[in-house]
Amino acid sequence: MRHLLLTTALLGGLATPALAQRAGTYAVEGQGADGSRYEGSVTLAPLGQDTWRVTWRVGSDSAQGIGILIPQGPLLVVGYTMGGETGVAAYAVQADGRLLGTWTQGQGGGIGTEVMTPGGGTGGAPGK
């Protein structure tokens, strides 16, 4: 049990600063459940300890979300709304700062994927 607590504490201590240092704008590239590809930008802004405001801009579309960092992954899990629909995304936080994600949205469901890369991005085909 002590080993599990120590491991959890170490992972938590490493994951939070890594993501905190990467608050800002990310380039995003993804693929919807229907196979359509898109690109744009995402902004991550800290709200508190392990909580984030996430804003996507893809073409003329935008989405707003709130996320929590789960240090044991580390994972960033985000609930969001876009065009009146609710969605959820989960991102594996990589050591190089990239976020590798899987998402679903709306009643039709389906699974999309996306990659966020620190450093910006613009425009692209609509669709998350």
Descriptive overview:
- There is one protein chain.
- The protein is mainly beta and 128 residues long.
- The protein has a single domain, classed as Beta Barrel (Lipocalin).
- The chain contains 1 helix and 8 strands; from the N terminus they run αββββββββ.
- An 8-stranded antiparallel barrel has the order 1-2-3-4-5-6-7-8.
- It is globular.
- The N and C termini lie far apart (42 Å).
- 25% of the residues are buried.
Q: What separation lies between the terminal Cα atoms?
A: 42 Å
Strand percentage lies at: over 45%
Major sheet description: 8 strands, antiparallel, barrel
Which stretches are poorly predicted, pLDDT < 50 over at least 5 residues? 1-21, 122-128
Within CATH, the superfamily carries the name Quinohemoprotein amine dehydrogenase alpha subunit, domain 2
Radius of gyration: 15 Å
Number of discrete domains: 1
| DSSP strand tally | 8
Instruction: State the helicity in percent bands.
Output: 10-25%
Spatial order of the strands forming the largest sheet: 1-2-3-4-5-6-7-8
Provide the descriptors you would attach to this structure in a database record.
mainly beta; 128 residues; disordered N terminus; Lipocalin; signal
